[in-house]
Amino acid sequence: MKLKNRIIVGFLMIILMPMLLLAATLFGISEAQHRNSSGSDTVQESAYDITIADTGSSQTSIQIMTKDLFFTALVILIFTSVSIGLWIYRSVAAPLVKLRKATQNIKEGNLDFVLEVDGTDEFAELCRDFEEMRRRLKESAEEKVLLDKENKELISNISHDLKTPITAVKGYVEGIMDGVADTPEKMDRYVRTIYNKTNEMDHLINELTFYSKIDTNRIPYTFSKLNVDDYFSDCAEEVGLELETRGIQLYYANYVEKDVLVIADGEQIRRVIHNIISNAIKYMDKPKGVIQIRVKDVGDFIQVEIEDNGKGIASKDLTYIFDRFYRTDVSRNSSKGGSGIGLSIVRKILEDHGGKVWATSREGIGTIMYFVLRKYQEVPMK
């Protein structure tokens, strides 16, 4: 029952009870007087020996009965008032005690409790609102803890992965300065290694910058119509040059008709391909590395498949590889650097394009990354 209704009921009981008791008292007194007057008439008709003592005795009995009725009414009124007061007090005090305990818990930083309350009055609704606030505070606190953990992990990853190429560059530069690279072949190999390591650092810094834009939802997209054949051919040529310096063979196949278009941000889709290829390079464990890019037509979408012959991904890890900071290589040896956000960036970009990304893999054989983009289709004007 609502608190307002409880107060109204209590007020009516306190008002009506005395009125009913007063009415009952007056009715009792009038009945007693009526019986006495009737008895007097009967006695006068039958005999004339009524005495003053009899009249006094009747008056005394009426007074005693009146006192008894008023005393009973007073007791009933007190009992009713106390009962109604306790009824209203318990409906207010019980939830207030629970609320006080709950606020004390929150003050002490404890959010691992549940505020349970029964009823439908205002205080019960207040307690339920308070419980909803506690639940959201707990979720927010857990999110903050997770975010802090992720940020610390990111700093640790970036620090480690920047230190590795910087150390290598420093070593090769010292080698050149000391005259270790005393042949054109050695000099060429040293310079190529320095170039690759500086590219790695540049890629890590770009990833970090892009990650900050993801967190604030400020990714700068510039959508336009892209010809699938021309665009992915250019991407394959660009990727092929990088893979060639690493001794990895690239095979490219396009099974889409030449006039098929997609609406996409060319720069960001290049980032998607680059991140997937970089991931494949990191975990390439074969002497002769091979990466294949296939572009296919699958109805309303075009599907891009990027396959490598690396070490593969365990089935237990496959569903998590697109999560932020997830790394299958927990040992973090220097040959497999990375911030752990590359594939999460891939998923975010493709979701913002209305597409999706997934993977299949077999350990020891390799991995295939798939992603789809919706085709551009002109709507005919009526």
UniProtKB/TrEMBL annotation:
Q: What is this protein called?
A: histidine kinase
Which spans of this chain does the record mark as coiled coil? 123-157
Q: Where would you find the membrane-spanning parts of this chain?
A: 7-29, 69-89
Q: Report membrane topology.
A: Multi-pass membrane protein
Chief location of this protein within or outside the cell = membrane
According to UniProt, the reaction catalysed is:
ATP + protein L-histidine = ADP + protein N-phospho-L-histidine
Question: InterPro entries per the record?
Answer: HAMP_dom, HATPase_C_sf, HATPase_dom, His_kinase_dom, HisK_dim/P_dom, HisK_dim/P_sf, HssS/ArlS-like, Sig_transdc_His_kin-like_C
Subcellular location per the Swiss-Prot or TrEMBL entry: Cell membrane
A molecular function (GO) term? ATP binding
Which Pfam families is this protein grouped with? HAMP, HATPase_c, HisKA
Keyword annotations from UniProtKB, A to Z: ATP-binding, Cell membrane, Coiled coil, Kinase, Membrane, Nucleotide-binding, Phosphoprotein, Transferase, Transmembrane, Transmembrane helix, Two-component regulatory system
- One GO cellular component, as annotated: plasma membrane
Q: Where is the HAMP domain?
A: 90-142
* EC number per UniProt: 2.7.13.3
Residue ranges of every copy of the Histidine kinase domain listed in the record: 157-377
Q: Show the taxonomic lineage.
A: Bacteria, Bacillati, Bacillota, Clostridia, Lachnospirales
Out of the domains of life, which is the source? Answer: Bacteria
